Amino acid sequence: MRSRRYTRLLHAGLAYLVVLSALLFFIVPMLWIIYTSFRTQESIFTGRVLTPWSTYTLENYRTILSVTDFPLYFWNSFKIAATVTLLSLACSITGAYGLSRFDIPGRQPLLLGIFSTQMFPQVLLVIPIYLIIVSLFLLDTVIGVVLGQMILVLPFQMWMLAGYFDNVPREIDDAASIDGCNILQRLIYVILPVAAPGIMVAAFFSFVVSWGDYLIVSIVTQSQRTATLTLIIQRLSSALLIRWGQVAAATVLTIVPTVLLFSFVQRRLVEGLTAGAVKGE
């Protein structure tokens, strides 16, 4: 009995150790970036973790917000991410609902093909996407950036929602049809409220991918009109004299919106991620 209790405590201790190690692996770099954003350039290179109180400053944030075009880049990032999220949701919801509810020949190979596009290295898509954007005369436009980023998010979003809709009972569709609803009414008034947690997960995924995207923005953007936050971080870190405090401040300001968004939708995200697993058993 004592041996079994000792074994259980040992397993619990090892589990906590693994979780704590993984947490530190992700949290420590973020805490270090936040800490660096409040330090002067000289104190960062002292090699000491703790420095006198006089070396801490808000000057890095003041410079980023007042000297650079950070507000413009922030608005561009929000505008592009919101557009990508709305358009990709409209396309993926209708496509996934059709794949889930209708007997389409080759459905499984089609879903497998959609998902396999996520295994393709994104950097290899740069030249085809650039040529398509140029041929459509969408270079250095918001629509060009949006179309390029939708190529990144749409396949996984559609594959995920198709699996989620499969777990929604078809009897709900049948009951709505008996009540006189057509396909569009069934989707909007019946299926979407039931599948809200899964749709929330898909929306959060597309927003975060678009918000943090650098690959598409770097090839489509030619001016400040379409530049996003990821570009300002790249430009700050590639200057001849790198101001690491300003780079850290820009990084913190870039991360804050996604953290706030996650805090608002956290409950829905957990429901959406766990509902599919439970129903799929």
SSE topology sketch:
Blueprint (H helix, E strand, L loop, with lengths): L1 H35 L4 H4 L14 H8 L3 H32 L5 H10 L9 H10 L6 H25 L3 H9 L4 H12 L1 H16 L3 H6 L8 H9 L6 H36 L2
Task: Walk me through what this model shows.
The chain is an all-alpha fold. The protein has two domains: 1-55, no CATH class; 65-278, MetI-like (MetI-like fold), CATH 1.10.3720. The chain is built from 13 helices and no strands. The protein has helices at residues 2-36, 41-44, 59-66, 70-101, 107-116, 126-135, 142-166, 170-178, 183-194, 196-211, 215-220, 229-237, 244-279. Helix 4 (70-101) runs antiparallel to helix 10.
Rg, Å, rounded: 24 Å
Tertiary shape? globular
Main sheet characteristics: none
* Number of E-state strands: 0
How far apart are the termini? 34 Å
What ranges have pLDDT less than 50 throughout 5 or more consecutive residues? 277-281
The sequence of SSEs as H and E is HHHHHHHHHHHHH
- Give the class-level CATH name of the largest domain: Mainly Alpha
Number of helices: 13
For this entry, what is the oligomeric state of its chains?
single chain
CATH architecture verdict of the largest domain: Orthogonal Bundle
Mean of residue pLDDT? Answer: 85
Judged by helices, strands and strand pairing, the structural class is: mainly alpha
CATH superfamily of the largest domain: MetI-like
As a percent range, the share of helical residues equals over 70%
> Strand portion, in percent?
under 5%
Number of individual domains: 2
Keywords: Cell membrane, Membrane, Transmembrane, Transmembrane helix, Transport
InterPro entries: BP-dep_ABC_trans_perm, MetI-like, MetI-like_sf
Transmembrane segments: 12-35, 80-99, 120-139, 145-166, 187-209, 244-265
Main location: membrane
